[in-house]
Amino acid sequence: MKKLIVASAALLASAQASLAEVCTYGESCGEYPPPTNVPEISAQGSIAALAVVGVITLLAWERRRRQA
């Protein structure tokens, strides 16, 4: 029962944020600044970064294995 109450409270808290007033471009949103553009992350760049991390991890693992 306690988990149900906590889950319900979390759901209500997140729902209030999603029901907040939505401002369109050019309107005043009160104290909130206007939205800004952010760069998109391409899938190719993400996969390349994961590949680099994987290779470094495997090289470190192999080096430690050979030293043991």
Layout of SSEs?
Layout: H1 2-18, H2 43-67
What is the SS-derived class?
mainly alpha
Order of helices and strands: HH
Shape descriptor reads flat
Number-wise, the strands total: 0
Number of helices: 2
Low-confidence stretches: none
Task: Describe, in plain words, how this protein is organized in 3D.
- The mean pLDDT is 79.
- This protein has 68 residues and is mostly helical.
- The longest helix is centred in the C-terminal third of the chain and has 25 residues, at 43-67.
- 62% of the residues lie in helices and 0% in strands.
- The radius of gyration is 23 Å and the shape is flat.
Provide a concise account of the structure shown.
The protein has helices at 2-18, 43-67. With 68 residues, it is mostly helical. This is VPEID-CTERM sorting domain-containing protein.
What are the salient characteristics of this protein?
about 70 residues; mainly alpha; 2 helices
